[in-house]
Amino acid sequence: MSSSPLSKKRRLSGTETKTGSHCSSSNSVRTDLSHTPANGMAKNGNDAEIDEGLYSRQLYVLGHDAMKRMQNSNVLISGMRGLGVEIAKNVILGGVRSVTVHDQGAAEWRDLSSQFYLREEDLGKNRAEVSQPRLAELNNYVPVTAYTGALTEDYLTKFQVVVLTNSTVEEQKHLGEFCHNKGIKLIVADTRGLFGQLFCDFGEEMIVYDTNGEQPLSAMISMITKDNPGVVTCLDEARHGFENGDHVTFTEVQGMTELNGCQPVEIKVLGPYTFSICDTTGFSDYVRGGIVSQVKMPKKISFKSICSSLAEPEFLLTDFAKFDRPGQMHIGFQAIHAFQKKHNRLPAPWNQADGDELLTLAKEVNSAQTGSAKVEQLDEALIAKMSYVAAGDLSPVNAFIGGVAAQEVMKASTGKFMPVMQWLYFDALECLPEEEAMPTEAECKPRSCRYDGQIAVFGTKLQDMLANQRYFLVGAGAIGCELLKNFAMIGLASGTGEVIVTDMDTIEKSNLNRQFLFRPSDVTKMKSDTAAAAVKQMNPSINITGHQNRVGPETERVYDDDFFESLDGVANALDNVDARMYMDRRCVYYRKPLLESGTLGTKGNVQVVIPFLTESYSSSQDPPEKSIPICTLKNFPNAIEHTLQWARDEFEGLFKQSPENAMQYLTDTKFMERTLKLPGAQPVEVLDVVYKTLVTDCPHSWADCVAWARNHWQCQYSNNIRQLLHNFPPNQLTSSGAPFWSGPKRCPHPLEFSTSNDLHMDYIMAGANLFAQMYGLPGSTDRAGVVKILQEVSVPTFTPRSGVKIHVSDQELQNSNSSVDDSKLEELKSQLPSAESFQYKLNPIDFEKDDDTNFHMDFIVASSNLRAENYDIPPADRHKSKLIAGKIIPAIATTTAAVVGLVCLELIKIVQGHKKLESYKNGFMNLALPFFAFSEPIAAPKHKYYEIDWTLWDRFEVTGLQSNGEEMTLQQFLDYFKNEHKLEITMLSQGVSMLYSFFMPAAKLKERLDLPMTEIVTKVSKKKLGKHVKALVFELCCNDLSDEDVEVPYVRYTIR
Amino acid sequence: MNSNVENLPPHVLRLVYKEVSALAADPPEGIKIYPSEEDITELHTSIEGPEGTPFTGGIFRMRLVLGKDFPAVPPKGYFLTKIFHPNVGHKGEICVNVLKRDWKAELGLRHVLLTIKCLLIHPNPESALNEEAGRLLLEDYAEYESRARLLTEIHAMGGPGGTSGAPQDPSDGPQPKKHAGDPAKRAGPSAAAVPAALGNGANGASTTSSSSSSSSVSNVAGKKKADKKRALRRL
């Protein structure tokens, strides 16, 4: 089962939200309506210009069309402070045509708290000029220019998209109106300490080609009525998942054929399996079958210019708990502009007088409003806080707004995804101290250090606390790189603290598109070391150590009690649920805060786990992805996902499992013994594979490999299909008299091999080369040569096994017996070559999807599309096949940047020791919709036995070593709980090992009761306890004194 | 926490222990369960062939493997005893809707066991894994029955020395994944379609096997088997 990279989907009670709807079951057919070439090859003349190796993961988010449109966009980003550089970074990584960074100002101390491309030695230099070469390194395809002149109207006409940061409101209005009239798309973004603002104007006639970024859905049909409107019922295999107003078209409908290939028709959803379409009364009668597929319809939207939108704003809410804030901040930001204009500076940090003045200005701004921008009552406390922190510049807030703004740049240049309409406001006030003890003006005064922008908001106290933190960062991929950038900027571990970052992976080309600390020359280097060195450049005072360990039981000697106990917290930057669950368990055990996050395309989430306060990561789980039933894979595929999984299984069986088994047979003396002990038919099967691999199929030349591939082709795409059709002919009826091949079961047809069919030849080339690799023989890419060889290959004729019941059962009988006296097994054993006589070394092949020269994806694409042809399933091109078969997680830098910004806001709360649940925020976002939601973490659920309340953070502490120096026995352990806690243990376990149960055989129990606990653990689990193990975790099932089953905490049993 | 941690969260493990102990104390009719001490997520069971079916009189060993996503994902069932049944593949894998599409986390292990027993009474040829059995069931019930009966007699009535009866070392065959994730494995094939792994997991580390193995076949059973073979050839 694959794991979701998105750590958690958003959970809301009641109705399903749009964020959840990407979760598609394997039964609903996803069909890409865009034409896919029959030979399964993606490359055509037009998209050769996209570097698929670099943009691979982002292409799965945006698609080729949007990527090409983006490559025509020249982008201007004005203001190279922390926010500007964040936007520029993400846009450059994305791959627009060119980026011009503009700034007329010089670097100051306060810029350094978030401008990651400015260093102390750059103070006084032009921010754009210093940043330009560092930004240019991010993507060789994107020319980056620095511009330090004035933003004239004439200058702006060179650009398709203009982003203004750190600009005056006059500039925004003036340039905004110009852009609006000239069709230049405008984004205005600003942050003021804990507050952020974003505005978009993409013109009055903007076409959005894809409003949600979801794959078009499709479903199989069971009935269509002749009615007005006609009602379509889908097979009860899966919900159709459509929404009102979606457009659909049809294929493969029998009877009511008028619908096939019809113009997109709008639907009304009637239920999870039904919806209505157009008038069908004039159509033919529906007979059976058919697939309904969603068609994405372009949508036209219209923006107001910044001047009219300032007066009549439309807000996108980021936090439903703060529904009245956008209006207040809308006034507040204008008041800050007014303050700046008046004083030529920002309000001083935590200065009362400036706060009062800002409030007065805000009142003036508000009363001057004539339109809907006017608020009924100003939130004076909020405006005061805006004044107090306005001079601040926070890396996490810039990361969030910068990530979102960069996605808007991409939307502006591509029409992919729904833009922000039109204002977005954000605040992170929960980061301030929980009590009324707010920072003082003195604490927050600038002191000419790189953290001035942050000190302005939080004072020096937080700075000291941050400097001494010890954090464990697990993973240095996309999230890891972004976290490290923020860590460096906020000054985490810049004093006595330390960041330990571990990642066992090396850098690959496809990482460079978003893991922005890595450069092309870093490919093949270790991620953790490279990332650590890169952030040292950003802030030389960060103490950081790189490790190459995978977290898991095997590294608990390194990450042991001492290690964890010394930590202040853990940040996960993982890409799979297993490792997340593991780290979560460790954090619960050591009672450390855990920052958890994940992304999937434009979706992202953040979860914060606080000891003794919140539930843990594992407390709630998303429904796992549905796996494809084996019978569907084996005989009844109906979607390309099914044939791709089948192809992937083929690859694994043929090129990995078989040689592995054969090598084990040759090198491992225990292999035979182990194999013979396997149940059922497995010994014969395994040995049969070994025999085939070593004897019957063993090639001696390239020609043999070609012959093998040809015969395997015959077997899979002709013979096996003919055998299946023999058992279930096309006209087969089920016991209820319905056609057997109907509904989700598509009737297959066998293929005829032809050397002039490219797909057939693709298969032979890939299969034969992989087969040759496996035996260490040289391969070949000479197609003409292979065609010649194929002419000589003899392919045995195949007759479906019919009426040979004796033969079949005889074989069944022979295969079935697992006991050693079976004749077939004996025969096999005697025929197997001895290890010495076999001269080859077999190479099991590990599937690697990202190397286009290794034949792996070639084989997957060809074998999947051949099987798809067997079942008349539309084929998938290489790009799509790689996504599905490689279980690739679509990813884009924008989402990661935004998500990690939110993570670091939670970090700031944790470091201060926030204790209230409502201070923390779990976050969910989908930049494509766009959609944001925050929620309080869920409290740790309370349990109770007798009068004792407990949560997952509580436990029993039991010292195993007694005063006499001897360890507790099971009997003593049971007695201890009976006497000390009035609990009768009915079952006792350690991990998955059962140490004691009330239904244990009496003899076994008797023997066990007098053994020390650790001895029982070793005995049952059959694993030795390492020297680093100081304590064991036991789980109990207990009865209380009234014999009622009660839930109790786990036991920490100390042994050293 | 020690090196023996498993990926099932504690609250799920607790649930499993409860269910297993309830099953051990009060097994469903005609089903015996043999929990493995070493690994509670691996449950060996034996199911009596229900009356009025070609499986009557047989004892069918079946293994339930609870994966790391249990109970969100149903356990995987494998028949260890050879059986001629449309929904049981030649490696013993079982395809039944309640264990796939219709699964709900609340259903529990008892429901799984009863469903599999029920499948012996009502096979579903439409999701056939054994196409031959599926075809016969649709076309020629008498033939289906006699074939299924024959395999029952050979494999499920062999007594303790045959393939039915006491469970073997549970460390054989596919194992639920137990370690913190290896991203490389994410792209792996579906577990069901991979031939059962050898030894104990991918690293080939073999655990000491328990004493019982099926090697000792009594002469009586052996002779009986030979008779059956001859009978089969005559068919």
From TrEMBL, chain A:
It comes from the Eukaryota. It comes from Kryptolebias marmoratus. One of its GO terms (biological process) is ubiquitin-dependent protein catabolic process. This is E1 ubiquitin-activating enzyme. Belongs to the ubiquitin-activating E1 family. The active site is at 631 (glycyl thioester intermediate). Pathway: Protein modification; protein ubiquitination. Gene3D superfamilies: NAD(P)-binding Rossmann-like Domain (3.40.50.720), Ubiquitin-activating enzyme E1, FCCH domain (2.40.30.180), Ubiquitin-activating enzyme E1, inactive adenylation domain, subdomain 1 (3.50.50.80), Ubiquitin-activating enzyme E1, inactive adenylation domain, subdomain 2 (3.40.50.12550), Ubiquitin-activating enzyme E1, SCCH domain (1.10.10.2660), Ubiquitin-activating enzyme E1, UFD domain (3.10.290.60). One of its GO terms (cellular component) is cytoplasm. Signal peptide: none annotated. Residues 1-47 are annotated as: Disordered. One of its GO terms (molecular function) is ubiquitin activating enzyme activity. It catalyses: ATP + ubiquitin + [E1 ubiquitin-activating enzyme]-L-cysteine = AMP + diphosphate + S-ubiquitinyl-[E1 ubiquitin-activating enzyme]-L-cysteine. Residues 14-37 have a biased composition (Polar residues). SMART domains: UBA_e1_C. NCBIfam families: Ube1 (TIGR01408). Residues 920-1051 form the Ubiquitin-activating enzyme E1 C-terminal domain. PANTHER family: UBIQUITIN-ACTIVATING ENZYME E1, UBIQUITIN-LIKE MODIFIER-ACTIVATING ENZYME 1. Keywords: ATP-binding, Ligase, Nucleotide-binding, Ubl conjugation pathway. Its EC number is 6.2.1.45. The keyword Transmembrane helix does not apply. The keyword ATP-binding applies. CDD domains: Ube1_repeat1, Ube1_repeat2. It is an enzyme of class 6 (ligase). It holds the Pfam family UBA_E1_SCCH.
UniProtKB/TrEMBL annotation, chain B:
InterPro entries: Ub_conjugating_enzyme, UBC, UBQ-conjugating_AS, UBQ-conjugating_enzyme/RWD. The keyword Cell division applies. One of its GO terms (molecular function) is ATP binding. Residues 155-235 are annotated as: Disordered. Its EC number is 2.3.2.23. Belongs to the ubiquitin-conjugating enzyme family. Residues 11-157 form the UBC core domain. Residues 187-221 have a biased composition (Low complexity). GO terms for biological process: anaphase-promoting complex-dependent catabolic process; cell division; exit from mitosis. Accepts ubiquitin from the E1 complex and catalyzes its covalent attachment to other proteins. Catalyzes 'Lys-11'-linked polyubiquitination. Acts as an essential factor of the anaphase promoting complex/cyclosome (APC/C), a cell cycle-regulated ubiquitin ligase that controls progression through mitosis. Acts by specifically elongating 'Lys-11'-linked polyubiquitin chains initiated by the E2 enzyme UBE2C/UBCH10 on APC/C substrates, enhancing the degradation of APC/C substrates by the proteasome and promoting mitotic exit. Gene3D superfamilies: Ubiquitin Conjugating Enzyme (3.10.110.10). Keywords: ATP-binding, Cell cycle, Cell division, Nucleotide-binding, Transferase, Ubl conjugation pathway. This is E2 ubiquitin-conjugating enzyme. It catalyses: S-ubiquitinyl-[E1 ubiquitin-activating enzyme]-L-cysteine + [E2 ubiquitin-conjugating enzyme]-L-cysteine = [E1 ubiquitin-activating enzyme]-L-cysteine + S-ubiquitinyl-[E2 ubiquitin-conjugating enzyme]-L-cysteine. Residues 222-235 have a biased composition (Basic residues). The active site is at 95 (glycyl thioester intermediate). Pathway: Protein modification; protein ubiquitination.
